[in-house]
Amino acid sequence: MAAPKKITVASGDLERFVADIFRARGLEPGDAASVAEVLVWANLRGIESHGISRVPRYLQFIDQGDLDPAATPRVHRLGDALFHLDAAHAAGAVAMKQAVATALELVPRAGVCVGIVSHTTHAGAIGLYALRMAEQGHAAIVLAAGMPNMAYHGTRTASLSTSPIAIAVPGRRYGPLVLDMATAVAAAGRINQMKLAGETLPEGWALAKDGTPTTDPAQADIAMPLGGPKGSGLSFMFECLTGLVPAAPVLVRAIGAPGPRHNAQNAMLIALDVAKFRPVEEFCRDVDALATLMKSQARRPGVDEILLPGERGRRTAEIRARDGVPVSARVWQQLVEVAAALEVSLPRVS
Known about the structure:
The protein is an alpha+beta fold and 350 residues long. It has helices at 11-24, 29-44, 55-64, 92-110, 127-134, 188-197, 229-244, 251-256, 280-295, 311-323, 329-342, and strands spanning 6-9, 74-79, 82-86, 112-120, 138-145, 150-151, 158-160, 164-169, 177-182, 206-208, 213-214, 220-223, 265-273, 325-328.
């Protein structure tokens, strides 16, 4: 079945379709729904690199034994405001959603909660997890580290992860503000999307497998760190916090050990109960005032509007929730093939 040039799917239908795929591969219905929610959320916000285009890769994780569909993450509470969640190789979305729920339960006790998630797979767009905590009135920081696909500053080998960080705060006029960024100039998923689209990479984005600079996305194998030593330094420290603290290192095993690499990711969540410092509504009022002040600053030539962290994604989500989620022909064809192999019904498209 050939894919049409343009596909649009209602977000709810797309979620159910993706959940059906993962149920067919052995995930419990609730876990499959969690994975689908996280992937479609990224598409809703225009983050296609972390959306449903990841479905084939996640299925490969299952085939390789990196993702255990039947895994049950276990939470080890280390104090009133501290926990370690061993994901036991569960899907990243499953582990991270459980970690968020645990943080929300614990943060009112001490006003702050720190949790570490280990032994999981790709978590998706981590801004979602920070947003969920901000929606409950908490300031939140989420960071993750995983497999080496980025060069350390000054090297020409894949020695770090494009480790992301997300920071969210509650707000009212503009909604919660969410910063979600990789420590690379461009995340690996973004480079792959440009490869699929046949677009040329800007200079300084990537290296080829042999360590030479390239603008050809088909040759791009190693991402470059954002801000040189700044991005690589952040990624290095994220590995220390998320991997070495819980004794679940990723980079040392991936780089230094012989044999095949097994996908793994770790994460850290920090939730801060704003209400312990001041009334949340007063905080939100000040966030709104600061945001409004920033948006009113004099613009450089060619800049139509000053956008806040997460504002473009929020607007895109509002449009796509109403009009449907666009899916590229190439991604849709991949999903059609997956659905056929698993005997999963396709959603209605337009």
